[in-house]
Design brief:
Elements: H1 9-31, H2 38-60, H3 69-89, H4 95-102, H5 105-116, H6 124-143, H7 154-179, H8 187-208, H9 218-245, H10 248-254, H11 257-269, H12 276-293, H13 295-302
Helix pairs in contact: 1-9, 1-11, 2-8, 2-9, 3-7, 3-8, 4-6, 4-7, 5-7, 5-10, 6-12, 8-9, 10-12
Length: 308
């Protein structure tokens, strides 16, 4: 029997904090791109975080759950593939477009889980929330970040496609975790599979693509430590813990706050401009989050009152 719960105050607070951390990683990529290539940064942070997770498992005397290595390799490969596609896509399209298409991941996950697990089926009102949230993301980052000349080219469209594929890989990762033996594995074990695969595969990819640039400036080293310890270790452990205890579709929709935080932090820390389209999209996103994550509280109000 599936015992995953609807969103409560603790889950909401944790997701807000996680979204803030995940948005800071995007700012870090931008701030240190000249000192360390993003693919190499992700590979190194994954290796450091994998060592931390392994040490935590040893301290807990935690053993690998039997029959999880096959789905573990699948989710690890999908995790690495997601970031490889994102890194490649960013070479052809804008960061604003990239984050829009990457954050279709929860929509792919919600659709896949809706088809695979009865406990994850979305009600019509929640589907409306999904649509509103995606419309809000599209409005905030496509309309709000559209270049003044409005031009588009084949390179940009190709980059958009790569970032959309990265979102699909993220969604597929969630589905595999929930629908395989990994659903019974610990968060540390699931994360270890992803980090080890990402380290190995992305380090090879960085070498093949000639993206091994690393100038150890204070900012670059500080960002690497933040990305490894806070993002890849602490925040991902918290994310997988939530996935094991709360309905994944609601968690996924809540993660739409990450690109919104990213734009706000970019404006504050990197002097990027916030356009009116973002503010309009933010309203749609918040409405979508309310419908999906708050459905369990909204549903009783929708039932017709019983006659006295």
């Amino acid at each position: 029997m599936d015992t995953r719960k609807a969103m409560d105050g603790r889950a909401v607070g944790t997701m807000v904090l996680l979204c803030l951390v995940w948005s800071l990683q995007q700012v870090g990529f931008k701030a240190t791109a000249q000192d360390i290539s993003p693919i190499l940064l992700i590979a190194l942070r994954s290796g450091i975080a994998a060592a931390l997770v392994g040490a935590l498992m040893l301290a807990r005397r935690e053993r690998l759950t039997p029959n999880t290595w096959r789905p573990g390799l699948v989710v690890g490969s999908l995790f690495a593939f997601e970031y490889l596609l994102l890194g490649a896509g960013l070479r052809h399209t804008s960061a604003a477009h990239a984050v829009v298409f990457l954050y279709t991941g929860p929509l792919f996950a919600a659709l896949g889980l809706h088809l695979k697990l009865p406990s994850e089926r979305l009600a019509p009102l929640q589907w409306l929330g999904v649509a509103l949230a995606f419309a809000g993301i599209a409005t905030a980052f496509i309309v709000g970040a559209q270049p003044s000349n409005g031009t588009a080219n084949a390179n940009a469209l190709f980059g958009d496609f790569l970032c959309l594929a990265a979102g699909a890989a993220w969604g597929a990762t969630t589905v595999v975790i929930r629908c395989s033996t990994l659903s019974r594995a610990s968060a540390t074990q699931t994360l270890l599979y992803q980090l080890v695969c990402a380290f190995a595969l992305l380090l090879v990819a960085a070498a093949v693509l000639g993206q091994l640039t690393f100038h150890p400036t204070r900012l670059a080293v500080g960002n690497l430590v933040f990305q490894a310890v806070i993002v890849s270790f602490a925040s991902f452990l918290a994310w997988f813990h939530l996935l094991r205890h709360y309905v994944a579709s609601s968690l996924g929709i809540f993660s739409f706050m990450t690109p919104m935080f990213g734009v706000l932090l970019g404006a504050w820390l990197l002097d990027e401009q916030i356009k009116p389209g973002f503010l309009l999209g933010a309203g749609f996103v918040l409405a979508g989050i309310l419908l999906v994550s708050g459905y369990s509280r909204i549903k009783p109000a929708l039932r017709p009152a019983k006659a006295a």
